[in-house]
Amino acid sequence: MKKLLAILMLGFFVVGCSAHTGTVTSRDLTTLGGCAVGGIAGSKIGSGSGKTTAIIVGTALGCAAGDGIGKKYENNQ
């Protein structure tokens, strides 16, 4: 159930990006990828009641890193 919810949330984020700009850009995709990787890393690191916190922090850090990579990629084109 949690995996399904996570997949749905990712879908909503992608839809939100395309609704804002009309298209999904490479920056949107790198941000999404960073969020996913950060969330997965957080789920592997955390345990017990701290697992949820680790997932949230990992996702937030991954999103920030992915967005930063996407910005650099767009500026170099």
Structure characteristics:
77 residues; mainly alpha; 3 helices; 0% strand
Task: Summarize the entry for a quick read.
This protein is mostly helical and 77 residues long. The chain has one domain.
General shape:
flat
Helix content: over 70%
Q: Uncertain regions: pLDDT < 50 for 5+ in a row?
A: none
Overall average residue pLDDT: 77
Number of beta-strand segments? 0
Strand content: under 5%
Largest sheet: none
Compute the separation of the termini in Å.
40 Å
The secondary-structure class comes to: mainly alpha
User: Helical element count?
Assistant: 3
Radius of gyration using CA atoms only: 13 Å
How many domain units?
1
What is the N-to-C order of secondary-structure elements (H for helix, E for strand)?
HHH
Can you describe this structure?
The chain is built from 3 helices and no strands. The longest helix has 26 residues, at 50-75. By secondary structure, it is mostly helical. The protein has one domain.
What is the topological layout?
Blueprint: H1 2-21, H2 26-45, H3 50-75
Helix pairs in contact: 1-2, 2-3
